Amino acid sequence: AQQDPIYAQYLNNPFILNPAYAGSNNMGNAMLQYRTQWAGFAGNPVTANFNTHMSVFQNKMGLGVQVIQDQIGENKNTEFNLAYAYKIEMQSATLSFGLQAGFINFSNILDDLNIQNPNDPAFFPYSETNFNTGAGAMLLSDSYVVGISVPRLLPATVSQGGQSIDVYNQNYYLFGSYMFLISEKIRFRPATLMKVSAGVPLSADLNANFSYLDQYTAGLFTRNFNTYGMLLNMAFGNFKFGYVFELPTNNSVGLNFT
Known about the structure:
The protein is mainly β and 258 residues long. It has 1 helix and 16 strands. Strands 1, 2, 3, 4, 5, 6, 7, 10, 11, 12, 13, 14, 15 and 16 form a 14-stranded antiparallel sheet that branches. A two-stranded antiparallel ribbon has the order 8-9. The protein is globular and about 65 Å long. The relative contact order is 0.13.
């Protein structure tokens, strides 16, 4: 099952996965992201994310806020986090350590389900809010980024129909990218994101992007070689717009995909 939201635009803002990125570019940042996965399938995952972060105390620390709503089928998670990062300037890179804390509301919406037995305890409504904390570390330079994080450290359970059920286990992330200068105007940036969770196969994203004048970016990616996609980004002054198109295969969504 999908336990953490899936993102394809993490290259633009690793803060969505790692609190250590807060304030990393010494500017004020705000990002709004919307993602609908497997569009056209009933109950498909839909994720909305707003986050903002900035550098403080002479660029030695970073602060951030993140609000997430993730829904798949009848299950909906709404999350709020505050993040803090401490940065250590090295000779050619910055080492950053981050912590975040907040709350997650786990709920289910049964309106769209046709339940044969209204007394089935597997379909009782629930809505519970749990405390959450996360941590991460990141090494950042002009050429490369390497980070490891656990955005949600605490497993979570809720009570449904008098029974305690597990709704979340930890996900561990390892992220890395490197910037190659092809020319004064063109840069090539490969990246990878790996996710590990207990009882779930390793998930790996492979990403390759070309940027022109730091203003236009286009790239291709694959997730576990059963989902493929294209990324497009355009920068206009202080604003950046991005679009991702993903094409799942039968290996990822079953034989009903056409």
